[in-house]
């Protein structure tokens, strides 16, 4: 059993730990002790102290440094006591108003039952959560426009207490940084493991006053994920898995240190690029992919919109040389209909269930219905 699964089983037994900074010692923050609330996340550390919670976000591009530190204090925390706190951005919680840039985070806030505190979103047309779409349509949630260049005037008008955004390397937030609004750097998408990313639900729970619910959700995720990993370990074989398809002459596959590669290993599959050290995508020539994975057993593709075997061949004739294309081993997730992208970051067990059913059908005598993928006929 892998270390991250083992940790989840012991999650409820964790004892208070000394506080560590994003790359230094406890003394760097002036705080010697606290109850550490996170175990799987590598880029997030939540520590509960007397009267407040400290949230530290590690810089994904330089893990020896902190990207941001937040001090989450109750709304009734005395203002004259703030000066006694360590360095960090003070955020009064639970949030009563917020601007959320990502449908992933919006969906998680909705799951926590805190949607009333989401008063604005960016790129509203990409949000798939029904409750959020309904509120955008009615005007109860304002859409401030494109997340890369949102309307500053609308943000000022909405006056959110915090803005939840996803950081990018060497990129700030433009004019938004000058508004004096707390910018919450949600770097969960850079986590290298499924459970590490899922644990960021605890940060959202702390921000929106739903800590107990967030802890319960994460425990359930861990239990379900561990059960699926155990199930996959009983399979008689390990299929070779190919991903995605060429576009504009380039085939981008996940690196061997990526989130996706980790899930394939947990699901009991062989990934041809598992030995590669890249944590992001690897861009390859289609001929090189054919040489390495032409005899794969399973081919998984994410497509925005319908996709057929004939469409694949028309776009890239080389695909007809791959065994899963010839033998009916291609599975596609139409993300224009499937909630894949909005769900799996905080619920990797749902995607894992699809993987185990596809990779090891002999273990699914109950004909498990796939949630995200369907087999191409």
Brief sketch in words of this structure:
This protein is of the alpha/beta class. The chain has 13 helices and 17 strands. The chain has 2 domains: 3-222, 3-Layer(aba) Sandwich (Rossmann fold); 236-375, Nitrogenase molybdenum iron protein domain (Rossmann fold, 3-Layer(aba) Sandwich), CATH 3.40.50.
Element layout with pairings:
Layout: H1 3-9, E1 17-18, E2 33-36, E3 44-49, E4 52-58, E5 66-74, E6 89-93, E7 98-100, H2 103-111, E8 120-121, H3 130-138, E9 142-143, H4 152-158, E10 162-165, E11 182-185, H5 194-198, H6 201-207, H7 211-233, E12 241-243, E13 251-254, H8 259-266, E14 281-284, H9 286-293, E15 298-303, H10 309-315, H11 323-327, E16 330-334, H12 340-343, H13 348-359, E17 374-375
Parallel strand pairs: 5-6, 7-8, 7-10, 8-9, 10-11, 12-15, 15-16
Antiparallel strand pairs: 1-2, 2-3, 3-4, 4-5, 13-14, 16-17
């Amino acid at each position: 059993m892998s270390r991250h699964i083992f940790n989840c089983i012991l999650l409820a037994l964790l004892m208070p730990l000394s506080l560590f900074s994003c790359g230094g010692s406890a003394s760097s923050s002036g705080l010697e002790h606290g109850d550490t609330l996170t175990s799987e996340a590598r880029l997030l550390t939540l520590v509960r102290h007397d009267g407040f919670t400290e949230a530290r976000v590690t810089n994904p591009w330089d893990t020896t440094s902190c990207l941001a530190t937040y001090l989450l204090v109750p709304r009734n925390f005395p203002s004259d006591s703030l000066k006694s706190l360590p360095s960090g951005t003070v955020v009064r919680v639970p949030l009563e108003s917020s601007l959320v840039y990502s449908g992933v985070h919006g969906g998680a806030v909705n799951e926590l039952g805190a949607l009333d505190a989401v008063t604005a979103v960016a790129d509203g047309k990409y949000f798939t959560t029904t409750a959020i779409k309904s509120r955008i349509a009615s005007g109860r949630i304002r859409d401030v426009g494109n997340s890369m260049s949102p309307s500053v005037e609308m943000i000022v008008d909405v006056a959110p207490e915090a803005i939840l955004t996803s950081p990018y390397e060497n990129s700030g937030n433009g004019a938004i940084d000058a508004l004096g609004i707390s910018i919450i750097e949600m770097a969960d998408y850079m986590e290298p493991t499924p459970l590490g990313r899922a644990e960021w639900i605890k940060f959202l729970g702390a921000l929106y006053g739903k800590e107990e619910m967030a802890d319960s959700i994460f425990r359930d995720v861990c239990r379900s994920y561990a059960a699926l990993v155990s199930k996959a370990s009983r399979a008689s074989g390990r299929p070779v898995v190919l991903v995605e398809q060429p576009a504009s002459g380039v085939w981008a596959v996940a690196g061997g240190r990526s989130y996706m590669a980790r899930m394939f290993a947990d699901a009991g599959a062989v990934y041809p690029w598992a030995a590669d050290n890249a944590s992001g995508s690897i861009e390859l020539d289609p001929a090189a992919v054919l040489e390495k994975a032409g005899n794969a057993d399973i081919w998984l593709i994410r497509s925005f919109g319908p996709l057929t075997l004939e469409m694949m061949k028309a776009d890239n004739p080389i695909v007809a040389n791959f065994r899963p294309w010839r033998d009916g081993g291609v599975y596609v997730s139409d993300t224009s209909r499937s909630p894949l992208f909005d769900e799996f970051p905080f619920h990797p067990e749902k995607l894992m269930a699809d993987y185990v059913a596809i990779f090891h059908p002999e273990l699914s005598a109950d004909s498990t219905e796939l949630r995200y993928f369907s087999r191409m006929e």
